[in-house]
Amino acid sequence: MDGHFRLGMVNQHRDLLKPGDQCIGGGYYHFDYTSNRIVLDRSSYDFGKPKWHWLDCLKVPSAYRGLTLVYLDDDGSTFDVSQELHIEHYG
């Protein structure tokens, strides 16, 4: 709920949560090195689509600094996370 962006190779999205965390959605990702982006898509079986509108700021690990984040919705629309939300890097 505090806007921390986490990604990893897990069986269930809940496996990324720390004690006391709440998740506002999830999905899948891949790195598009040609366009320097992290492309997010689909939805989490556990938590559904990301609820981007609930966030003012997305806290992204500093390892991903310089990469643009985009979300491709099932309806074919694109949500440019990096343009629509304030991005704060940590770590």
Name its key features.
91 residues; two-stranded parallel ribbon; four-stranded mixed beta sheet; mainly beta
3D shape:
globular
Number of distinct beta strands: 6
Strand ordering within the main sheet: 1-2-4-5
Spans of at least 5 consecutive residues whose pLDDT stays below 50 are none
Helical stretch tally:
1
> Beta fraction of the residues?
25-35%
Return the structural class: mainly beta
Could you characterize the architecture of this molecule?
Helices cover 4% and strands 31% of the residues. With 91 residues, the protein is mainly beta. The two termini are 18 Å apart. The mean pLDDT is 94.
Write the layout of secondary structure elements.
Layout: E1 28-32, E2 37-41, E3 57-61, E4 68-72, E5 78-80, H1 81-84, E6 86-90
Parallel strand pairs: 2-4, 3-6
Antiparallel strand pairs: 1-2, 4-5
What is this entry, summarized?
It is built from 1 helix and 6 strands, in the order E-E-E-E-E-H-E. It is mostly beta strands and 91 residues long. The mean pLDDT is 94.
